[in-house]
Design brief:
Elements lengths: L5 H20 L6 H13 L3 E4 L6 H11 L4 E5 L6 H5 E6 L4 E6 L6 E5 L6 H13 L1 E4 L2 E4 L5 E6 L12 H4 L4 E4 L5 H12 L13 H13 L4 H15 L7 H4 L2 E3 L3 H17 L7 H12 L4 E2 L1 H5 L4 H11 L5
Parallel strand pairs: 1-8, 1-9, 2-5, 5-8
Antiparallel strand pairs: 3-4, 6-7, 10-11
Length: 329
């Protein structure tokens, strides 16, 4: 029996990725961008912070993607009274056996939806972020390695601030991307309304990718080529957020309090490779970097009060970076 060539394997995986979008579309209308970014995070082992108002199908999209990928999904609703043990688990006493046993929490899943993460106190947030970073959880005296793949999709509501605890910038930086989820178009909303009003609408989807497929795709993404000039371009983009005046960004410089951390360059490289692979290429183009730049730097460029007063957003700064920072050869 002949083994598949790498090209044939890549084509098979890209076909399956296309089928993932088709299966998710059976349930979710018009959130292809969110699904794309969820897959980028999955294929690069990067966690994602989603921001958007209520009712934009964030939970439905993530749970549907998990079913299509045949992964164990858990939703955790963060509230002010949520405890550390509610997240990771605790030790309980078994009277019959006369000893303590471990009861694992919902964090022991493949895809976690941390809904409204900013509604819980810092101790609970740090427990989740520790699991994200270390890929392990300690309960009592026992340390458990989390199952792979392990991906956290955290959501924030940008509208309500009452009863919330703002995530420290150092913790937000651990998320690979911050993705803004927008309202659906009129056409998509019409389709959503019709689907929901149809009582016979089915939420059933077929599994497409296996864990083995995901790990194989991760290996292929890692092999995607990126030229030295594009590697330097990523570094120039990130450096420009720290020293904007050196890149003739005098107007933007007055609004930037802190530039992006080194995690920005690391994650931009990884995400650009994933985007290239999902577009059917084994090499990165400048367009791949530009496509992912905003999501990577959304939460890493810290703006000052002047920016808020002048209604300047991070997207405006990133747009200026992409237009003025040249690609060096």
């Amino acid at each position: 029996m002949a083994f598949e060539t790498t090209t044939e394997l890549q084509q098979e995986h890209q076909l399956k990725i296309k089928q993932v979008f088709e299966e998710v579309a059976k349930v979710v209308v018009g959130q292809e961008y969110m699904v794309n970014r969820l897959l980028v995070g999955l294929f690069t082992n990067g966690h994602i912070l989603l921001e958007g108002v209520h009712g934009l199908a964030k939970t439905l999209t993530i749970s549907t993607v998990a079913r299509v990928l045949h992964l164990y999904f858990a939703r955790i609703q963060f509230t002010p009274d949520l405890l550390h043990s509610d997240l990771v688990g605790t030790m309980i006493y078994n009277q019959k056996e006369g000893k303590f046993e471990v009861k694992k929490g919902p964090i022991f899943a493949n895809i976690i939806l941390a809904d409204e993460i900013n509604r819980s106190p810092a101790k609970v947030q740090s427990a989740l972020l520790e699991a994200m970073q270390e890929k392990q959880v300690t309960i009592g005296e026992t340390t458990f390695t989390l199952d792979k793949p392990f991906l956290v999709m955290a959501t924030q509501n940008p509208v309500e601030n009452e009863g919330t605890y703002q995530l420290p910038e150092a913790q937000i930086d651990r998320f690979m991307m911050k993705v803004f989820v927008n309202y659906p178009t009129k056409e998509h909303e019409l389709e959503i309304m019709r689907r929901i009003s149809n009582m016979g609408f089915s939420y059933e989807v077929n599994p497409v990718l296996t864990k083995e497929d995901i790990f194989s795709i991760r290996g292929e993404v890692n092999k995607v080529k990126i030229s030295e000039s594009l590697e330097k371009y990523i570094i120039e983009l990130v450096t420009a957020t720290r020293k904007p005046k050196e890149y003739k960004l005098e107007n933007e410089a007055q609004y930037i309090q802190f530039g992006a951390s080194p995690r920005a360059s690391i994650n931009m490289n990884l995400a650009a490779k994933a985007v290239a692979f999902m577009n059917g290429r084994d090499y990165v183009l400048p367009e791949d970097i530009k496509e992912i730049a905003l999501d990577i730097m959304n939460h890493r460029i810290i703006l000052n009060y002047e920016a808020e007063a002048d209604n300047v957003k991070t997207a405006d700064i990133v747009k200026a970076l992409l237009s003025k920072v040249p690609i060096t050869k």
